Amino acid sequence: MKNIEMTALPGGKAIQIGPSQPLLLMAGPCALEDSDLCWKIAWEMKAICERLEIAYVFKASFDKANRTSLNSFRGPGLKKGLRQLCRIRQEIGVPVVSDVHETNQIDLAMECLDIIQIPAFLCRQTDLLVAAAKSGRVVNLKKGQFLSPWDMKHAVEKVRAAGGERILLTERGACFGYNNLVVDMRSLPVMRSFGCPVIFDATHSVQLPGGMGGSSGGQRKFIPTLTRAAMAAGIDGLFMEVHPDPDKALCDGPNSIPLDKVEPLLRQLLEIRKAVSRFTNE
């Protein structure tokens, strides 16, 4: 597998993603909330990652278009959300990632985002994948809950055929009956075999889709267990929904990790990664 490079911010170093590179962490609230809250999360996560020598990218959605209920919080929207992400990128000095849902969002998004993310529900949408590839940005493809890992090869081929070579693949669990997800750890090496760095979504993997009737539930107590297992299986990065007070989060609080629990978990995970590297030469 080749490493992929994410363009450096002004005055910074380019981020290399892949085997033998520092762990990548995409972390932040599910959706953009109050700008001061997002600033606090980005600033504290940047400090944590600098201490641990982890490559950090701030993540948050400007619009969560796939909420369970029409009344669910979706975020500030495209233009206001991108302004908020640009401010974090410029003033805190961290790359940013957010998801797009329609092809007409990409021209604006690419002016701000370092990584364009394709939501799991949309990973088969050919026009969206092609437009993301043509943006020239890193493309993070989240594996659909309804797809086998080997079927993601077709999504990768769509992006590559449109000129996109910098592709990340993210595992976030598969449908398991009603209102539940399960993670098949075999999916991590399967998707890695396509030549793309693989990310484990530590928090959406414990989501209970629609599990609270009009909204999704989650089992955050299992985040450490699944994340340790994924790290042992071999991954190149993590995706986490982080919030200072998940019970008050406006989106996906039940499956978000408290901000003060992040650093201890990351320290465990780095030790596991170090041990795994002795056996895999990564």
TrEMBL record:
GO terms (BP aspect): keto-3-deoxy-D-manno-octulosonic acid biosynthetic process
GO molecular function terms listed in the Swiss-Prot or TrEMBL record: 3-deoxy-8-phosphooctulonate synthase activity
Domain DAHP synthetase I/KDSA: 14-276
Pfam annotation, one family: DAHP_synth_1
Keyword Mitochondrion: no
CC per GO annotation: cytoplasm
Keyword Nucleus set for record: no
Name of the top EC class for this enzyme: transferase
Catalytic activity: D-arabinose 5-phosphate + phosphoenolpyruvate + H2O = 3-deoxy-alpha-D-manno-2-octulosonate-8-phosphate + phosphate
Pathway: Carbohydrate biosynthesis; 3-deoxy-D-manno-octulosonate biosynthesis; 3-deoxy-D-manno-octulosonate from D-ribulose 5-phosphate: step 2/3; Bacterial outer membrane biogenesis; lipopolysaccharide biosynthesis
Known EC number: 2.5.1.55
InterPro entries associated with the record: Aldolase_TIM, DAHP1/KDSA, KDO8P_synthase
Superkingdom of origin organism: Bacteria
Keywords noted in UniProt: Cytoplasm, Lipopolysaccharide biosynthesis, Transferase
Localization terms from the record: Cytoplasm
Family affiliation: Belongs to the KdsA family.
Name used for this protein in its record: 2-dehydro-3-deoxyphosphooctonate aldolase
Species the sequence originates in: Candidatus Electronema aureum
Gene responsible for this protein: kdsA
